[in-house]
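Here is the promised in-class demo. Please do not try to memorize the tokens; focus on the logic of going from shape to residues.
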């Protein structure tokens, strides 16, 4: 690949068409396929914009969800292919997209070095030969897709269950599997055995006669143990995990999955030291499960990448050099790159002017999972207005996050007006004190409609909002975005990632390992505060182990800092006094 970084999935709408903006430059990105209504509307928008035929796929059609997703992904593939062919035919003239393709690359790339050398040649036969070699070496970026494995709502028609293969995640998988993309499926948010088993129903996930995979699997994971378990489950079914995408538990955007106190550094160390062991065991399981299905001369490649809170070229290079990862993910900073993501003007301005305190962990997600939130979301203003009018909750139109059956036979969403009304009525009969009532009322009404909120920005930016449609935006950046305070171009962000430009000059920012450590200590303190009155033996043991694990992480960083090899790579940004201050804060957290 031309680049060693990718752009992870960003909400529902923020990166829904990012491949159309970056893939022609060799940059891979990830599209969410949770919302088939969003993809259908974006298919119409981009079809009309590019004079392509558009035939709507209505909800009345059988298997409409999968059909919509396949059609949209096929359109992305067609449009990116056309863009890429146009670029390749351009002359090598400074300032055009062909030159931009090479100039965005890191300086240590052989292709970039070859390009720089070629540009010094005078026009002639020798330069033409060089130009043709460079064109032949070009590759477009991947159009990868993301499925949150456990966002798998059961669907009904006239109160009749439509079947296991028509749940949301299963239909989304089918939509990707039947598309003509040659790319990867990113599975996140935990293991879904039913969904994982369904992968084996599609030929594209198995190697062809040349041992190549048309469609690959990437697991987004937060620790080695769970990664190994999931990969073994898949290998036994003949499905190869082509990449483990390690993400910080808390120093990330979107939903946050706190580990049991395991920090990113020690997690990466375990992947580094046990990588070959895991590869050997998975290879054996994989080859055995394939049987005579394919004759493999070698096991497919298995990559490791990391994302979550990376903010400087030094941190990026450190991960590549010290932990030997194959790539890194840069997500939240691209929310301030308008040519790459769909963020409306008002939200961009709010993000530009935000401080560290504006980014926080919330209970806003109807999934019951911690959610990285932004205080100046316009959807937050709308939520408070509804409460003030005595009508908390949202109209639930899309129903992707329906999971609660406390009051109903079929699941409903905890952010919906229906659920919150029923739950508040129940609360009113509990005879609580005013303080207790407010506490529980706030927890109930904190839930926010993410189905609408995470799409609204894409509709606003592209002038696609329908009359009377909700324009309230939910955005969920990682806390790392607090240190970026301007609007940037793709070129500027790529240069920043590769150390050709520093967008954070004079910005006081902790090393991303320290930032994550402090986020975990804050999380521990919040957990203690929330359970101060009901801290039973089991919970106390869990929190004690959590604290001890954090201390193990601190000890790991202290050891790394004292070693020459680690010091040379890390000392530039990891202030040892910051590490000691965090350790002191951890010691003072009494359980």
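The designed amino acids, position by position:
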């Amino acid at each position: 690949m031309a680049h060693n970084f990718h752009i992870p999935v960003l909400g529902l709408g923020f990166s829904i068409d990012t491949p159309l903006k970056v893939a022609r430059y060799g940059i891979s990105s990830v599209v969410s396929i949770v919302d088939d209504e969003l993809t259908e509307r974006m298919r119409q928008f981009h079809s009309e914009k590019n004079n392509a035929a558009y035939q709507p796929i209505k909800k009345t059609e059988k298997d409409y969800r999968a059909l919509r997703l396949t059609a949209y992904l096929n359109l992305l593939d067609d449009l990116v292919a056309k863009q890429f062919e146009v670029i390749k035919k351009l002359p090598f003239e400074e300032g055009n997209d062909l030159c931009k393709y090479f100039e965005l690359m890191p300086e240590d790339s052989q292709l970039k070095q070859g390009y720089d050398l070629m540009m010094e040649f005078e026009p002639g036969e020798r330069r033409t030969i060089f130009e043709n070699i460079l064109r032949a070496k070009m590759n477009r970026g991947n159009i990868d897709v993301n499925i949150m494995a456990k966002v798998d709502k059961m669907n009904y028609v006239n109160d009749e269950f439509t079947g296991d293969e028509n749940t949301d995640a299963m239909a989304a998988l089918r939509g990707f599997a039947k598309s003509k993309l040659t790319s990867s499926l990113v599975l996140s948010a935990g293991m879904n055995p039913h969904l994982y088993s369904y992968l084996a129903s599609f030929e594209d996930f198995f190697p062809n006669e040349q041992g190549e995979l048309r469609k690959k699997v990437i697991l987004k994971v937060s620790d080695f143990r769970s990664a190994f378990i999931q990969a073994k489950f898949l290998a036994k079914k003949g499905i190869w995990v082509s990449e483990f995408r390690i993400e910080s538990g808390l120093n990330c955007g979107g939903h946050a999955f706190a580990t049991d106190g395991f920090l990113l550094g020690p997690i990466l160390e375990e992947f580094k030291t046990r990588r070959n062991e895991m590869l050997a065991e998975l290879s054996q399981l994989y080859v055995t499960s394939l049987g005579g299905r394919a004759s493999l001369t070698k096991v497919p490649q298995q990559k490791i990448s990391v994302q979550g809170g990376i903010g400087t070229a030094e941190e990026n290079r450190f991960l590549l050099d010290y932990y030997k990862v194959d790539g890194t993910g840069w997500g939240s900073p691209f929310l301030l790159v308008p040519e790459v993501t769909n963020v409306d003007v008002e939200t961009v301005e709010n993000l530009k002017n935000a401080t560290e305190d504006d980014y926080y962990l919330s209970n806003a997600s109807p999934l019951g999972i911690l959610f990285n939130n932004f205080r100046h979301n316009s959807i937050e203003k709308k939520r408070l207005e509804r409460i003030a009018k005595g009508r908390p909750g949202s109209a639930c139109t899309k129903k992707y996050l329906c999971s609660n059956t406390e009051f109903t036979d079929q699941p409903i969403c905890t952010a919906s007006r229906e659920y919150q009304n029923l739950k508040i009525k129940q609360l009113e009969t509990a005879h609580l004190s005013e303080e207790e009532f407010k506490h529980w009322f706030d927890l109930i009404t904190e839930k926010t409609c993410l189905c609408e909120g995470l799409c609204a920005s894409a509709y606003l930016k592209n002038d696609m909002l329908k009359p009377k449609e909700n324009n309230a935006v939910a955005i969920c950046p990682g806390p790392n975005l607090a240190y970026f305070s301007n609007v940037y171009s793709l070129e500027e962000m790529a240069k920043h990632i590769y150390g050709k430009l520093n967008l954070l000059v004079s910005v006081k920012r902790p090393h991303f390992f320290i930032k994550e450590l402090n986020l975990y200590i804050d999380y521990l303190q919040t957990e203690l505060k929330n359970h101060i009155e009901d801290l039973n033996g089991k919970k106390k043991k869990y929190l004690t182990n959590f604290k001890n694990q954090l201390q193990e992480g601190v000890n790991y960083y202290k050891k790394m800092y004292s070693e020459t090899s680690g010091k040379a790579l890390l000392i530039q940004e990891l202030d040892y006094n910051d590490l000691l201050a965090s350790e002191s804060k951890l010691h003072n957290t009494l359980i």
